[in-house]
Protein backbone atom coordinates (compact mmCIF):
# COMPACT_ATOMS: atom_id res chain seq x y z
CA UNK A 1 0.00 0.00 0.00
CA UNK A 2 1.14 3.48 -0.79
CA UNK A 3 1.26 4.75 2.78
CA UNK A 4 3.02 1.87 4.52
CA UNK A 5 6.81 1.60 4.86
CA UNK A 6 8.29 -1.44 3.06
CA UNK A 7 10.00 -4.06 5.18
CA UNK A 8 13.42 -4.96 3.89
CA UNK A 9 14.09 -8.19 5.78
CA UNK A 10 16.18 -10.57 3.63
CA UNK A 11 14.77 -13.58 1.76
CA UNK A 12 15.64 -16.80 3.59
CA UNK A 13 14.68 -20.44 3.21
CA UNK A 14 12.16 -19.78 5.97
CA UNK A 15 10.28 -17.37 3.64
CA UNK A 16 9.36 -20.42 1.54
CA UNK A 17 9.23 -23.13 4.19
CA UNK A 18 6.97 -21.20 6.56
CA UNK A 19 3.85 -21.81 4.44
CA UNK A 20 4.84 -25.36 3.67
CA UNK A 21 5.12 -26.51 7.27
CA UNK A 22 5.21 -24.04 10.20
CA UNK A 23 2.26 -21.97 8.95
CA UNK A 24 0.61 -24.57 6.75
CA UNK A 25 -2.71 -22.97 5.67
CA UNK A 26 -4.80 -26.10 6.27
CA UNK A 27 -3.10 -28.03 9.09
CA UNK A 28 -1.92 -25.06 11.17
CA UNK A 29 -4.05 -22.02 10.24
CA UNK A 30 -7.19 -24.03 9.33
CA UNK A 31 -7.85 -21.82 6.31
CA UNK A 32 -9.38 -22.82 2.97
CA UNK A 33 -11.16 -25.80 4.51
CA UNK A 34 -14.13 -25.62 2.11
CA UNK A 35 -12.23 -26.87 -0.98
CA UNK A 36 -9.96 -28.97 1.26
CA UNK A 37 -12.95 -31.05 2.34
CA UNK A 38 -15.12 -30.80 -0.77
CA UNK A 39 -12.86 -31.88 -3.63
CA UNK A 40 -10.40 -34.23 -1.96
CA UNK A 41 -12.30 -37.46 -2.63
CA UNK A 42 -9.56 -38.45 -5.09
CA UNK A 43 -5.82 -37.66 -5.23
CA UNK A 44 -6.16 -36.37 -8.80
CA UNK A 45 -8.85 -33.83 -7.81
CA UNK A 46 -6.79 -32.78 -4.77
CA UNK A 47 -3.71 -32.24 -6.92
CA UNK A 48 -5.71 -30.28 -9.50
CA UNK A 49 -7.26 -28.00 -6.88
CA UNK A 50 -3.92 -27.57 -5.07
CA UNK A 51 -2.05 -26.57 -8.23
CA UNK A 52 -4.89 -24.23 -9.30
CA UNK A 53 -4.74 -22.49 -5.92
CA UNK A 54 -0.92 -22.34 -6.07
CA UNK A 55 -1.10 -20.62 -9.49
CA UNK A 56 -3.66 -18.05 -8.30
CA UNK A 57 -1.71 -17.44 -5.06
CA UNK A 58 1.62 -16.84 -6.80
CA UNK A 59 0.25 -14.70 -9.65
CA UNK A 60 -2.04 -12.56 -7.47
CA UNK A 61 0.70 -12.03 -4.86
CA UNK A 62 3.13 -10.97 -7.62
CA UNK A 63 0.69 -8.46 -9.12
CA UNK A 64 -0.45 -7.09 -5.74
CA UNK A 65 3.18 -6.63 -4.70
CA UNK A 66 4.04 -5.00 -8.04
CA UNK A 67 1.17 -2.51 -7.73
CA UNK A 68 1.42 -2.02 -3.94
CA UNK A 69 2.77 1.55 -4.25
CA UNK A 70 -0.11 2.59 -6.50
CA UNK A 71 -3.09 1.01 -4.70
CA UNK A 72 -4.70 3.45 -2.24
CA UNK A 73 -5.60 1.88 1.10
CA UNK A 74 -9.29 2.73 0.64
CA UNK A 75 -9.70 0.62 -2.50
CA UNK A 76 -7.20 -2.13 -1.69
CA UNK A 77 -9.70 -4.96 -0.98
CA UNK A 78 -11.66 -4.21 -4.19
CA UNK A 79 -8.37 -4.18 -6.11
CA UNK A 80 -7.18 -7.47 -4.58
CA UNK A 81 -10.49 -9.20 -5.35
CA UNK A 82 -10.38 -8.06 -9.00
CA UNK A 83 -6.77 -9.28 -9.30
CA UNK A 84 -7.59 -12.64 -7.66
CA UNK A 85 -10.76 -13.05 -9.78
CA UNK A 86 -8.69 -12.43 -12.92
CA UNK A 87 -6.30 -15.26 -12.16
CA UNK A 88 -9.14 -17.55 -11.08
CA UNK A 89 -10.82 -16.94 -14.46
CA UNK A 90 -7.52 -17.76 -16.18
CA UNK A 91 -7.12 -20.97 -14.19
CA UNK A 92 -10.79 -21.86 -14.85
CA UNK A 93 -10.31 -21.63 -18.63
CA UNK A 94 -6.91 -23.33 -18.33
CA UNK A 95 -8.29 -26.39 -16.51
CA UNK A 96 -11.23 -26.54 -18.95
CA UNK A 97 -8.78 -26.60 -21.86
CA UNK A 98 -6.42 -29.15 -20.23
CA UNK A 99 -8.87 -31.73 -18.84
CA UNK A 100 -12.66 -31.85 -19.19
CA UNK A 101 -12.75 -34.66 -16.63
CA UNK A 102 -10.95 -32.58 -13.98
CA UNK A 103 -13.03 -29.52 -14.88
CA UNK A 104 -16.28 -31.46 -14.35
CA UNK A 105 -14.96 -33.06 -11.14
CA UNK A 106 -13.91 -29.76 -9.52
CA UNK A 107 -17.09 -28.01 -10.68
CA UNK A 108 -17.91 -24.73 -8.96
CA UNK A 109 -14.96 -25.06 -6.58
CA UNK A 110 -12.62 -23.64 -9.24
CA UNK A 111 -14.60 -20.38 -9.36
CA UNK A 112 -14.85 -20.42 -5.56
CA UNK A 113 -11.04 -20.07 -5.29
CA UNK A 114 -11.85 -16.31 -5.47
CA UNK A 115 -13.30 -16.60 -1.98
CA UNK A 116 -10.39 -18.65 -0.58
CA UNK A 117 -9.21 -16.73 2.47
CA UNK A 118 -5.63 -18.05 2.08
CA UNK A 119 -5.24 -15.97 -1.10
CA UNK A 120 -6.84 -12.73 0.09
CA UNK A 121 -4.98 -13.14 3.39
CA UNK A 122 -1.62 -13.41 1.58
CA UNK A 123 -2.38 -10.34 -0.55
CA UNK A 124 -3.42 -8.24 2.44
CA UNK A 125 -0.90 -9.34 5.05
CA UNK A 126 2.19 -10.10 2.95
CA UNK A 127 2.22 -9.15 -0.74
CA UNK A 128 1.02 -5.59 -0.06
CA UNK A 129 3.95 -5.02 2.31
CA UNK A 130 6.83 -6.88 0.63
CA UNK A 131 8.89 -6.86 -2.54
CA UNK A 132 7.79 -8.92 -5.56
CA UNK A 133 10.40 -11.71 -5.27
CA UNK A 134 9.78 -12.19 -1.58
CA UNK A 135 6.00 -12.19 -2.07
CA UNK A 136 6.27 -14.78 -4.85
CA UNK A 137 8.50 -17.06 -2.74
CA UNK A 138 6.21 -16.78 0.26
CA UNK A 139 3.08 -17.36 -1.86
CA UNK A 140 4.73 -20.40 -3.50
CA UNK A 141 5.46 -21.82 -0.03
CA UNK A 142 1.84 -21.29 1.00
CA UNK A 143 0.59 -22.75 -2.29
CA UNK A 144 2.75 -25.86 -1.99
CA UNK A 145 1.68 -26.16 1.66
CA UNK A 146 -1.97 -26.04 0.58
CA UNK A 147 -1.32 -28.61 -2.18
CA UNK A 148 0.54 -30.85 0.28
CA UNK A 149 -2.40 -30.71 2.70
CA UNK A 150 -4.91 -31.49 -0.03
CA UNK A 151 -2.77 -34.42 -1.20
CA UNK A 152 -2.59 -35.76 2.37
CA UNK A 153 -6.39 -35.69 2.55
CA UNK A 154 -7.04 -36.87 -1.02
CA UNK A 155 -4.66 -39.83 -0.95
CA UNK A 156 -6.00 -41.24 2.34
CA UNK A 157 -9.61 -40.77 1.23
CA UNK A 158 -9.00 -42.39 -2.16
CA UNK A 159 -7.02 -45.32 -0.75
CA UNK A 160 -9.64 -46.14 1.89
CA UNK A 161 -12.73 -45.01 -0.02
CA UNK A 162 -11.98 -46.51 -3.43
CA UNK A 163 -9.02 -48.85 -2.83
CA UNK A 164 -6.98 -46.97 -5.46
CA UNK A 165 -4.26 -44.31 -5.64
CA UNK A 166 -4.33 -41.96 -8.64
CA UNK A 167 -6.76 -44.45 -10.18
CA UNK A 168 -4.44 -47.50 -9.82
CA UNK A 169 -5.93 -50.34 -7.75
CA UNK A 170 -3.90 -51.09 -4.61
CA UNK A 171 -5.79 -54.03 -3.15
CA UNK A 172 -7.29 -57.20 -4.56
CA UNK A 173 -10.86 -57.85 -5.63
CA UNK A 174 -11.75 -58.81 -2.06
CA UNK A 175 -11.21 -55.23 -0.79
CA UNK A 176 -14.46 -53.66 0.34
CA UNK A 177 -14.15 -49.83 -0.09
CA UNK A 178 -15.03 -47.65 2.90
CA UNK A 179 -17.53 -45.54 0.93
CA UNK A 180 -17.91 -43.12 3.85
CA UNK A 181 -14.36 -41.89 3.17
CA UNK A 182 -15.29 -40.38 -0.20
CA UNK A 183 -18.44 -38.83 1.26
CA UNK A 184 -18.41 -35.51 3.20
CA UNK A 185 -18.15 -37.17 6.68
CA UNK A 186 -15.00 -38.96 5.48
CA UNK A 187 -13.38 -35.59 4.80
CA UNK A 188 -13.98 -34.57 8.42
CA UNK A 189 -12.68 -37.91 9.76
CA UNK A 190 -9.48 -37.65 7.72
CA UNK A 191 -8.78 -33.97 8.45
CA UNK A 192 -9.42 -34.64 12.14
CA UNK A 193 -6.88 -37.47 12.13
CA UNK A 194 -4.27 -35.37 10.31
CA UNK A 195 -4.80 -32.47 12.76
CA UNK A 196 -4.35 -34.91 15.64
CA UNK A 197 -1.09 -36.16 14.12
CA UNK A 198 0.20 -32.61 13.56
CA UNK A 199 -0.70 -31.58 17.12
CA UNK A 200 1.08 -34.67 18.49
CA UNK A 201 4.21 -33.95 16.42
CA UNK A 202 4.20 -30.31 17.55
CA UNK A 203 3.82 -31.30 21.21
CA UNK A 204 6.58 -33.92 20.95
CA UNK A 205 8.93 -31.34 19.44
CA UNK A 206 8.07 -28.85 22.19
CA UNK A 207 8.72 -31.49 24.89
CA UNK A 208 12.11 -32.28 23.33
CA UNK A 209 13.09 -28.58 23.32
CA UNK A 210 12.01 -28.20 26.97
CA UNK A 211 14.03 -31.30 27.97
CA UNK A 212 17.10 -29.96 26.15
CA UNK A 213 16.75 -26.57 27.86
CA UNK A 214 16.39 -28.24 31.27
CA UNK A 215 19.44 -30.40 30.60
CA UNK A 216 21.45 -27.33 29.53
CA UNK A 217 20.43 -25.48 32.68
CA UNK A 218 21.33 -28.50 34.87
CA UNK A 219 24.81 -28.86 33.33
CA UNK A 220 25.44 -25.10 33.10
CA UNK B 1 -7.33 18.33 22.26
CA UNK B 2 -7.31 14.54 21.68
CA UNK B 3 -9.38 14.85 18.52
CA UNK B 4 -6.93 17.47 17.18
CA UNK B 5 -4.02 15.08 17.77
CA UNK B 6 -5.97 12.26 16.15
CA UNK B 7 -6.80 14.43 13.13
CA UNK B 8 -3.18 15.46 12.68
CA UNK B 9 -2.09 11.74 12.67
CA UNK B 10 -4.68 10.57 10.14
CA UNK B 11 -3.16 10.50 6.64
CA UNK B 12 -5.05 12.64 4.10
CA UNK B 13 -7.57 10.83 1.89
CA UNK B 14 -6.31 10.26 -1.65
CA UNK B 15 -8.29 12.06 -4.33
CA UNK B 16 -11.21 10.27 -5.96
CA UNK B 17 -9.43 10.58 -9.31
CA UNK B 18 -6.44 8.63 -7.97
CA UNK B 19 -8.68 5.83 -6.66
CA UNK B 20 -10.67 5.65 -9.92
CA UNK B 21 -7.39 5.65 -11.89
CA UNK B 22 -6.02 2.72 -9.85
CA UNK B 23 -9.20 0.66 -10.13
CA UNK B 24 -9.39 1.51 -13.86
CA UNK B 25 -5.80 0.37 -14.39
CA UNK B 26 -6.39 -2.90 -12.52
CA UNK B 27 -9.64 -3.51 -14.43
CA UNK B 28 -7.81 -2.87 -17.70
CA UNK B 29 -4.99 -5.34 -16.87
CA UNK B 30 -7.64 -7.84 -15.73
CA UNK B 31 -9.72 -7.44 -18.88
CA UNK B 32 -6.68 -7.78 -21.13
CA UNK B 33 -5.48 -10.98 -19.41
CA UNK B 34 -8.94 -12.59 -19.41
CA UNK B 35 -9.57 -11.77 -23.10
CA UNK B 36 -6.16 -13.16 -24.10
CA UNK B 37 -6.75 -16.39 -22.19
CA UNK B 38 -10.31 -16.80 -23.53
CA UNK B 39 -9.12 -16.27 -27.11
CA UNK B 40 -6.31 -18.78 -26.65
CA UNK B 41 -8.29 -21.50 -24.85
CA UNK B 42 -11.69 -21.21 -26.58
CA UNK B 43 -10.79 -23.25 -29.71
CA UNK B 44 -9.02 -25.86 -27.56
CA UNK B 45 -12.07 -26.21 -25.26
CA UNK B 46 -14.47 -26.46 -28.24
CA UNK B 47 -12.32 -29.15 -29.88
CA UNK B 48 -12.07 -31.13 -26.61
CA UNK B 49 -15.85 -30.91 -26.13
CA UNK B 50 -16.41 -32.02 -29.74
CA UNK B 51 -14.11 -35.02 -29.26
CA UNK B 52 -15.74 -35.92 -25.93
CA UNK B 53 -19.18 -35.78 -27.57
CA UNK B 54 -18.02 -37.88 -30.53
CA UNK B 55 -16.49 -40.43 -28.16
CA UNK B 56 -19.77 -40.56 -26.18
CA UNK B 57 -21.87 -41.00 -29.35
CA UNK B 58 -19.76 -43.97 -30.46
CA UNK B 59 -19.82 -45.45 -26.93
CA UNK B 60 -23.61 -45.51 -27.07
CA UNK B 61 -23.41 -47.87 -30.07
CA UNK B 62 -20.73 -50.42 -29.09
CA UNK B 63 -20.54 -52.11 -32.52
CA UNK B 64 -19.92 -48.88 -34.44
CA UNK B 65 -16.62 -46.96 -34.61
CA UNK B 66 -15.13 -44.00 -36.50
CA UNK B 67 -13.81 -46.34 -39.23
CA UNK B 68 -17.28 -47.57 -40.15
CA UNK B 69 -19.50 -44.55 -39.52
CA UNK B 70 -19.69 -40.75 -39.78
CA UNK B 71 -21.52 -38.56 -37.28
CA UNK B 72 -23.85 -35.77 -38.44
CA UNK B 73 -25.48 -33.33 -36.00
CA UNK B 74 -29.03 -32.00 -36.32
CA UNK B 75 -31.39 -29.69 -34.52
CA UNK B 76 -34.81 -31.35 -34.49
CA UNK B 77 -37.82 -29.36 -33.30
CA UNK B 78 -41.48 -28.74 -34.17
CA UNK B 79 -40.18 -26.34 -36.83
CA UNK B 80 -38.38 -29.16 -38.62
CA UNK B 81 -34.97 -30.77 -39.06
CA UNK B 82 -31.92 -28.52 -39.46
CA UNK B 83 -28.40 -29.81 -40.08
CA UNK B 84 -25.92 -28.20 -37.63
CA UNK B 85 -22.41 -27.34 -38.75
CA UNK B 86 -20.24 -27.80 -35.63
CA UNK B 87 -17.19 -26.45 -37.43
CA UNK B 88 -18.81 -23.00 -37.28
CA UNK B 89 -18.82 -23.24 -33.48
CA UNK B 90 -22.55 -23.93 -33.09
CA UNK B 91 -23.58 -26.31 -30.31
CA UNK B 92 -27.34 -26.20 -30.82
CA UNK B 93 -27.62 -29.84 -31.93
CA UNK B 94 -30.02 -32.17 -30.10
CA UNK B 95 -29.74 -35.21 -32.36
CA UNK B 96 -26.66 -37.06 -33.61
CA UNK B 97 -27.05 -39.52 -36.47
CA UNK B 98 -24.47 -42.12 -37.49
CA UNK B 99 -24.25 -43.08 -41.18
CA UNK B 100 -22.42 -46.03 -42.67
CA UNK B 101 -19.27 -44.87 -44.49
CA UNK B 102 -19.80 -47.38 -47.32
CA UNK B 103 -23.47 -47.12 -48.26
CA UNK B 104 -24.62 -44.01 -46.35
CA UNK B 105 -27.32 -45.93 -44.45
CA UNK B 106 -28.52 -44.66 -41.08
CA UNK B 107 -26.86 -46.81 -38.37
CA UNK B 108 -28.12 -45.16 -35.21
CA UNK B 109 -29.44 -42.03 -33.54
CA UNK B 110 -28.01 -40.61 -30.31
CA UNK B 111 -29.93 -38.11 -28.21
CA UNK B 112 -28.91 -36.07 -25.15
CA UNK B 113 -30.98 -36.08 -21.95
CA UNK B 114 -30.74 -34.33 -18.60
CA UNK B 115 -32.57 -34.22 -15.27
CA UNK B 116 -31.88 -33.01 -11.73
CA UNK B 117 -29.88 -35.52 -9.71
CA UNK B 118 -28.81 -35.57 -6.06
CA UNK B 119 -26.22 -32.78 -6.31
CA UNK B 120 -26.54 -31.35 -9.80
CA UNK B 121 -28.04 -32.08 -13.20
CA UNK B 122 -27.21 -35.60 -14.45
CA UNK B 123 -26.52 -35.47 -18.21
CA UNK B 124 -26.73 -38.56 -20.39
CA UNK B 125 -26.58 -39.55 -24.05
CA UNK B 126 -28.69 -42.46 -25.25
CA UNK B 127 -28.96 -44.43 -28.45
CA UNK B 128 -32.37 -44.80 -30.13
CA UNK B 129 -33.18 -47.48 -32.69
CA UNK B 130 -36.20 -46.44 -34.82
CA UNK B 131 -36.68 -50.01 -36.08
CA UNK B 132 -37.29 -51.60 -32.67
CA UNK B 133 -38.57 -48.35 -31.13
CA UNK B 134 -36.26 -48.87 -28.21
CA UNK B 135 -33.25 -47.40 -26.44
CA UNK B 136 -30.17 -49.49 -27.18
CA UNK B 137 -27.50 -47.88 -25.00
CA UNK B 138 -26.77 -45.05 -22.58
CA UNK B 139 -23.68 -43.25 -21.29
CA UNK B 140 -23.34 -40.61 -18.59
CA UNK B 141 -21.81 -37.40 -19.92
CA UNK B 142 -21.88 -35.59 -16.57
CA UNK B 143 -22.74 -36.56 -13.03
CA UNK B 144 -21.43 -35.04 -9.83
CA UNK B 145 -23.63 -37.23 -7.62
CA UNK B 146 -22.23 -39.13 -4.64
CA UNK B 147 -18.78 -40.57 -5.48
CA UNK B 148 -18.75 -44.35 -5.25
CA UNK B 149 -22.54 -44.54 -5.72
CA UNK B 150 -24.02 -42.13 -8.25
CA UNK B 151 -20.99 -40.76 -10.08
CA UNK B 152 -20.27 -41.53 -13.75
CA UNK B 153 -17.72 -44.27 -13.01
CA UNK B 154 -19.94 -46.11 -10.50
CA UNK B 155 -23.08 -45.96 -12.65
CA UNK B 156 -21.36 -47.00 -15.88
CA UNK B 157 -19.47 -49.73 -13.99
CA UNK B 158 -22.71 -51.27 -12.73
CA UNK B 159 -23.41 -53.92 -15.41
CA UNK B 160 -26.79 -54.87 -13.96
CA UNK B 161 -28.02 -51.26 -14.16
CA UNK B 162 -26.55 -50.63 -17.61
CA UNK B 163 -28.36 -53.75 -18.88
CA UNK B 164 -31.62 -51.75 -18.45
CA UNK B 165 -30.62 -49.68 -21.48
CA UNK B 166 -29.83 -52.53 -23.87
CA UNK B 167 -33.47 -52.80 -24.95
CA UNK B 168 -35.59 -50.20 -23.14
CA UNK B 169 -38.96 -49.81 -24.82
CA UNK B 170 -40.00 -46.34 -26.08
CA UNK B 171 -42.78 -47.61 -28.32
CA UNK B 172 -45.20 -45.00 -29.66
CA UNK B 173 -48.98 -45.07 -29.60
CA UNK B 174 -50.84 -46.02 -32.81
CA UNK B 175 -51.17 -42.36 -33.90
CA UNK B 176 -47.39 -41.78 -33.23
CA UNK B 177 -48.17 -38.75 -31.07
CA UNK B 178 -46.65 -39.89 -27.75
CA UNK B 179 -44.99 -42.80 -25.93
CA UNK B 180 -47.26 -45.75 -25.28
CA UNK B 181 -45.74 -46.04 -21.78
CA UNK B 182 -43.58 -43.41 -20.11
CA UNK B 183 -40.15 -44.62 -18.96
CA UNK B 184 -40.25 -45.18 -15.22
CA UNK B 185 -37.60 -46.01 -12.64
CA UNK B 186 -38.62 -48.69 -10.16
CA UNK B 187 -37.04 -49.92 -6.91
CA UNK B 188 -34.15 -52.33 -7.29
CA UNK B 189 -35.38 -55.84 -8.11
CA UNK B 190 -38.99 -54.87 -8.95
CA UNK B 191 -38.75 -54.35 -12.73
CA UNK B 192 -41.59 -56.14 -14.54
CA UNK B 193 -42.06 -54.26 -17.85
CA UNK B 194 -39.69 -53.42 -20.76
CA UNK B 195 -40.19 -49.65 -20.27
CA UNK B 196 -39.06 -49.79 -16.63
CA UNK B 197 -35.57 -49.12 -15.25
CA UNK B 198 -34.36 -51.20 -12.32
CA UNK B 199 -32.77 -48.62 -9.97
CA UNK B 200 -29.32 -48.96 -8.39
CA UNK B 201 -29.61 -49.93 -4.75
CA UNK B 202 -28.17 -47.00 -2.74
CA UNK B 203 -28.27 -44.54 -5.65
CA UNK B 204 -32.02 -44.27 -6.20
CA UNK B 205 -31.99 -40.49 -6.80
CA UNK B 206 -29.34 -40.77 -9.53
CA UNK B 207 -31.22 -43.71 -11.11
CA UNK B 208 -34.45 -41.68 -11.06
CA UNK B 209 -32.64 -38.66 -12.56
CA UNK B 210 -31.42 -40.84 -15.45
CA UNK B 211 -34.91 -42.29 -15.97
CA UNK B 212 -36.59 -38.87 -15.76
CA UNK B 213 -34.09 -37.39 -18.22
CA UNK B 214 -34.61 -40.20 -20.73
CA UNK B 215 -38.39 -40.01 -20.35
CA UNK B 216 -38.53 -36.22 -20.86
CA UNK B 217 -36.26 -36.43 -23.91
CA UNK B 218 -37.98 -39.48 -25.44
CA UNK B 219 -41.46 -37.97 -24.91
CA UNK B 220 -40.48 -35.01 -27.12
CA UNK B 221 -37.94 -36.48 -29.51
CA UNK B 222 -39.25 -39.96 -30.40
CA UNK B 223 -42.53 -38.71 -32.00
CA UNK B 224 -40.54 -36.02 -33.86
CA UNK B 225 -38.01 -38.59 -35.11
CA UNK B 226 -40.85 -40.82 -36.33
CA UNK B 227 -42.25 -37.84 -38.23
CA UNK B 228 -38.87 -36.86 -39.78
CA UNK B 229 -37.31 -40.33 -40.08
CA UNK B 230 -37.14 -40.35 -43.88
CA UNK B 231 -35.55 -36.89 -43.86
CA UNK B 232 -32.93 -38.09 -41.33
CA UNK B 233 -32.24 -41.23 -43.40
CA UNK B 234 -31.68 -39.18 -46.54
CA UNK B 235 -29.66 -36.39 -44.91
CA UNK B 236 -26.26 -38.04 -45.22
How would you describe what is shown here?
The complex is a heterodimer of chains A (220) and B (236). Chain A is mostly helical and 220 residues long. Chain A has one domain. Chain A has a two-stranded antiparallel sheet with strand order 1-2. Chain A starts with 12 loop residues before the first helix and ends with a helix. The N terminus of chain A is likely disordered. In chain B, strand 5 and strand 6 form a beta hairpin. Chain B has one domain. Chain B is globular. In chain B, the strands form 2 sheets. In chain B, strands 2-1-3-4-5-6-7 form a 7-stranded antiparallel sheet. Chain B has 236 residues and is of the alpha+beta class. Chain B contains 5 helices and 9 strands; from the N terminus they run H-H-E-E-E-E-E-E-H-H-E-E-E-H. Helix content of chain B is 39%, strand content 24%. The termini of chain B are far apart. The mean pLDDT of chain B is 87.
**Total DSSP helices of chain A:** 8
- What Rg of chain A do the Cα atoms give? 20 Å
Q: Based on CA inertia axes, which overall geometry of chain B fits?
A: globular
Number of E strands of chain A: 2
| Count of individual domains of chain A | 1
Mean pLDDT of chain B, nearest integer?
87
Unreliable stretches of chain A (pLDDT < 50, length at least 5) are 1-5
Layout of secondary structure:
The complex is a heterodimer of chains A (220) and B (236).
Chain A: H1 13-22, H2 33-38, H3 43-66, H4 76-98, H5 100-106, H6 117-127, H7 132-162, E1 164-165, E2 168-169, H8 184-219
Antiparallel strand pairs in A: 1-2
Helix pairs in contact in A: 1-7, 3-4, 3-6, 3-7, 4-5, 4-6, 6-7, 7-8
Chain B: H1 2-9, H2 16-60, E1 69-77, E2 80-84, E3 95-100, E4 106-116, E5 121-129, E6 134-142, H3 152-156, H4 159-162, E7 168-169, E8 184-186, E9 196-198, H5 204-234
Parallel strand pairs in B: 8-9
Antiparallel strand pairs in B: 1-2, 1-3, 3-4, 4-5, 5-6, 6-7
